[in-house]
Amino acid sequence: MSKSGVSLTKSIELPSLERKFMEGRALKSLALTSLTWFAAFLASIPLFSVIYMLLVEGGARLDLEALTELPPAGFELGGGFGNAIVGTLVMVAISTSISVPLGILAAIYLAILEPRSKLAETARFLAKVLTGFPSILAGVFAYATIVIWTGTYSAWAGGVALAVLMLPTVTLAAEEAMKQVPQRMKDAAYGMGCTRTQVIWKVVLPTGLPGILTGVILAVAGAAGESAPLLFTALFSNYYMSELAEPTASLSILIYNFSGMPFENQLELAWAASLVLVLIVLVFNIIARLIGKPKY
Amino acid sequence: MIDPFAGLGSEKSVSGAPSTIEYMGDRIFRTLAYMCAGAIVLLVAFILWELGGKAMPAIKEYGLGFIGGTTWDTNNSEFGVLPEIWGTLYSSLLALVIGGGLGIAIAIFLTQNFIHARIASVFRTIIEMLAAIPSVVFGLWGIYVLIPMIRPGAEWLHEHFGWFPMFGSELSGPGLAPAALVLAIMILPTVAAISADAFRRIPYKVKEAAYGMGTTRWEAILKVMLPTASSGILAALVLGFGRALGETMALAMLIGNSNQISVSIFAPANTLASLLASSFPEAGEVEIEALMYAALVLLLITFIVNVAGLAVQQYTMRKFEGQK
Fold first, then answer.
1. Which is it for strands B78-79 and B72-73: parallel, antiparallel or unpaired?
2. Are B37 and A252 inside 8 Å of each other by CB?
3. For site-directed labelling of A279, which of B14, B118, B258, B320 has its Cα 20 to 30 A away?
4. In chain B, which residues have their Cβ closer than 8 Å to the Cβ of A28?
5. Using CA atoms, how far apart are residues A157 and B105, in angstroms rounded to an integer?
6. Environment class of residue B196 by beta-carbon count within 10 Å: exposed (0-12), middle (13-18) or buried (19+)?
7. Chain B residue with minimal CA distance to A26?
8. How far apart are CA B320 and CA B198, in angstroms?
9. What's the count of helices (H) and strands (E) in chain A, helices before strands?
């Protein structure tokens, strides 16, 4: 028995377990690894290039005058984009005050009240579809409803177009945050005789707040950078806004308008405005990241 | 020993059945939440109804010929969007090839232990920040950085490989190539994030089993990880494609807005979204109707692509549920 067993193992030639560096498959692995490193390097170039250009071209022109003055016309020198900053902030404020209450309430229904109902399934699916909704179509929608209805381009129309884009982001993020709230915490509150509303207000919302805020702030950052929905809803204006029902300037549209102009001055302002816009968006992103960091 | 129940009895307990007012408040609040969830459904229905209604005159007037037509002539009220549909699909497809490939490579780079987890999270932030840069800023960057940068390469390609239809014309400033490159940069974060998620869903033991068989890192990735994550990666690509189709500002600034169908990637072209962006502000009543029709076409295309992507994503999630 034992003799035959020994001869059996001897007759099999075991392949070497050692992996040699020059072996074909090791070389292939090395080649693909270097390719991946190269891809990662390639993918990070655009961000640094954009930031470099913004700092060099935009930073050179960014001063108090640029932040407060009105846009220059044609061959004029100087000027700034103060009215565009105000316009962007106002329209983002409008869209936030529409989409955030609506989105959070809808998320409460989706996450806590009836997560498996027909309406919840439909609303969740449509919210996901809406996240891929082309932003220009939000502009077309706001044009078809508000601009045609009121007869004028306005900050309202721009705000509504942005709200359509913010709504799904806020809803889905808030739903996700509220779903993370541990069931035992809710059960404890129910056990004390709380109504569902009380559980939501006193347990779910406070506990899920960091996640909800992250979603809201990211949505705000996205809305601040949008330009397509504002093109023919808020249009543009060369003056500070005096009311909400008139054409309103925004940073992104100013960049778009100035980018095609053959004047050096306007081009410099376009870069400076881009720097301001990117700073606003990035600051919001960083705040969202800090709040959303899991604490436990 | 401290009595854990000490002092509990001395306070009035907060537990108890809800009062009538609390019942009423609960009812009202839940109805409100119900209405808000319904509002999302109604909003989508309203968008479809509104766009469809405003496009109706143009649909009746031009019918399906609108989709096959190649002229956009405001003076003679002759409208067709075939060049725009072609430009939309072509530019998005080019972007998908570049941005999708890079995105998947980034996802592998982030999830397959190439770098320390801490550095990986820094790198992920870089990619996410790319997604945060506004489209219009990318447009500006494209005009003044990207186009001058790729021009020598484009000229060389046209000179030496001009017989190849894709390099059949010269790059005279804006065109498909810079537009597609910027699009690729813009969809890269989407593709990378969703496919990294797909890789992360794979149970760790699957990878360990592959390594246990003596595979190299790349044999494990190519023969085990990629096939396992394939449906998630497909979802990432389809959703990235959907993003590219609807992207507007950067394209309106970079693609040249020229109403023509050309295979050459250096020729100017147009997309549905940038047609809307460039024509809408100055359009008259008849053109607005035609533009509404074009918006509806864009809506349908993106809707189909996005629903397909979401369906694949849902399927992936279900596949891995209960496997961990």
1. antiparallel
2. no
3. B118
4. 216, 218
5. 41
6. buried
7. B216
8. 10
9. 13, 0
Closest approach of B164 to chain A, Cα-based (Å): 26
So what's the pLDDT on residue A296? 45
Choose the closest CB to A136 out of B14, B16, B276.
Answer: B276
The answer to whether the Cβ–Cβ distance between A197 and B40 falls below 8 Å is no
With contacts defined as CB-CB under 8 Å, which chain B residues touch A247? Answer: none
Across the A:B interface, residue pairs with CB atoms under 8 Å apart total 256
Secondary structure of residue A36 in the 3-state scheme? helix
How is chain A split into domains, by residue range? 64-71+78-181+209-292
> pTM of this prediction?
0.90
For the structural domain made of B65-320, what CATH number should be given?
1.10.3720.10
Give the one of A33, A129, A285 whose C-beta lies nearest to B307's C-beta.
A129
Q: Where are the domains of chain B?
A: 18-62, 65-320
Distance of CA B81 to the CA centre of its chain: 22
Please write the tens of the pLDDT for every residue from A227-283: 999 999 998 999 898 888 899 999 999 999 999 888 889 999 999 999 999 999 999
Residues 6+ apart with CB under 8 A from A186: A112, A199, A203, A204
pLDDT digits (tens, 9 = 90+) for A117-170: 999 999 999 999 999 899 999 999 999 999 999 999 999 999 999 999 999 999
Q: For position A4, what pLDDT does the model report?
A: 47
Which superfamily does A64-71+78-181+209-292 belong to?
MetI-like (1.10.3720.10)
